[in-house]
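User: Continuing from earlier, I have the next pair ready.

Assistant: Great, send them over.

User: Here they are, in order.

Assistant: Folding the first of the pair now:
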Amino acid sequence: MRLVVLGLSLLVAGTAAGAGGGGGGQRRGGEGRKRLHRVQHGHCSYTFILPEVESCRGGSPDQYGNINVAQRDAPPPEREWSAQKLQHLESTMENNTQWLQKLENYIQENIKSEMVQIQAHAVHNQTATMLEIGTNLLTQTAEQTRKLNVVEAQVMNQTSRIEIQLLENSLSTNKLEKELLMQVTEISKLQDKNSRLEKKVQVLESRQRTELEDMREEKERLQDLVARQTASIEALERQLHTASTNNSLLQRQQQQLMDSVHTLISMLSTGSVPLPREQKFRDCAEAFKAGNNISGVYYLHIGNMTEPTKAFCDMETSGGGWTVFQRRVNGSVDFQRTWREYKMGFGDPAGEHWLGNEAVYQMTNQAQYTLRVELKDWEGNAPYSQYEKFQLGSEKQQYRLFLRGYSGTAGHQSSLTSHGTGFSTRDSDNDNCLCKCALMLTGGWWFDACGLSNLNGMYYTVGHNIRKLNGIKWHHFRGPSYSLRATAMMIRPSDF
């Protein structure tokens, strides 16, 4: 503002200098009218006071604005005065214009310097403010960045877990799809098989219907044939009765001859010697002592059993007289039997058989007996084990085994337990093991705790008899997993 006031003072002074050294004459000449001129420059306005034209008509001013005294009394020419006045005004205006330009330049320079200072101060303040704001923003940005990093880490962890779970779900889905595809394939195969089986069943049903019809027809024919044969047989019987009444003597002779022929045939085929029913022997030792020294099948009357028992008598081994109650030679008889079957006996006495626990119990309780066990392996070895005293308990005692006095060549020790072991089968477990030895090792035997022997196990042929724990084994002869070729268990009185 001080610069503006100073400019105005200079402007006014310049105007007064240009307007008249004859200003006093103007004031004395009366009150002349004045004009005000205003110039607007930016935010500032400038006012100029200029004399009117009428107040200058009294004389012709010189270069300083004074009226020429010599020409005062002469009437000035109008045109000359106006030209001089106009020239004076133009010079004045030119001076004023120069002063205004200088003032404007001065004001602009001062204003620029002040504006630069003000702008610098404002910029400094704004810079400080902006720096403070920027610092706060950086602090907040760092905090937000830290939080964003934490959130990003959590999101990454969650994303990785989700990706792992999605991968696992994808793998599970793939597995399920594969299994489903396999199941669908199997179902389609089963459906195809089922359709084929249905077709086969339909074909078989049609065949069966045809066969049933044929069988009905055949049955009718057979019934007719049987009726005719029955009538023929009745006629033949009547004729035979008539002939028999006439030839009774010839019939008796023929019957005797037929009995003799059958006896000879049975002796030649089985090597057995059926004894007449009138001869009763308790065991094979009595039959041997009675003069029967041929090995074969004999009828024995054992204990209080009501029917005679067919048994094989060995009249050759170690002096003969042995009653054989167990024999294995070729696997032709199945020894996987029940308790009752082992009690009553099974098989063929002339081949593979088990005489029966009840018969052995009855026999060994009527006198003191010796047991002999004969063995054969697939290499041709034939050792034996012998026990001087052998006895079985009753069925209530589970046909318990009692032994004493071991000897023989089938091992330095006995492979049979001698402390009263009960007999076990697949349907009657009487062993001393938590498991069921008869199911594991098969057959029926005195297993104890699955034991060292089992002569009633599975029969394995040569080449398949190695590493067979459920075969025919005798531990102290060929070990626990060798299945033997043949066995025989026989008894006779100890005083034979």
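And the other member of the pair:
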Amino acid sequence: MQGCDASVLLDGSATGPGEQQAPPNLTLRPSAFKAINDIRDRLERECRGAVVSCSDILALAARDSVVASGGPEYRVPLGRRDSPRFATAQDVLSVLPPPSSNVPSLLDVLRKIGLDATDLVALSGGHTVGLGHCTSFDDRLFPRPDPTMSPDFLGRLKRTCPAKGTDARTVLDVRTPNVFDNKYYVNLVNREGLFVSDQDLFTNATTRPIVERFARSQRDFFQQFGVSMVKMGQIKVLTGDQGQVRRNCSARNSGTADGLQWSSLVQTVVDAAAEGLGF
């Protein structure tokens, strides 16, 4: 919410609940937070000190998860530092767009952080893997079906979510739910996007040509996804004497010492591209 500073990993405190307790983040898995801390502990042992920030670990883990699922490999610029403060629950609600958002509202949010329509479509392709809760899309089913949804897809969703408020989940990508590929865009062309924020990418005239291009070419999608992830990973980063390198990703360091053993530098998008970000 404040930039790429790993603030979402922080537990709440006496000042209030952390970002994890905000409604949009309640589906984040505790096992994922543990995995990040386990990686941080191993890195501290290997590096003999707190050298790698939790923010950098998150960026690298995201890339490696994409690769492990069949997606593209891309360079990850490093050197971020961690925020000692988390955003408030109200900040999360006011900044994080809900799955009911349409393209104009999504673009309004992204323009403020330096991302454009191509980035929006490419990053939305992350929905080629994962699950969605009925409560995130059942407004498209009840009381009247969303006309942008194919009848067959509507029927499948109603079997999973037979009434509004059903506590159930379904895959985000009906074709290849466990593989990182371009089938998400094929779904949109066939009116099988799960969320409003998905399907409106195909309905909207600005983003539709980008969806169609990615549906035709997985190579184009993979290349742009890497570029857009690098751009997103450099939003409002903390570097130099800003922030800290947390010894525990779930809690800010006590005192003022952060344990960083050398100065940090975040590469720019241009630097990363010059080093071979293009595939």
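Worth noting for the second one:
The longest strand covers residues 131-133. The two ends are 30 Å apart (CA to CA).
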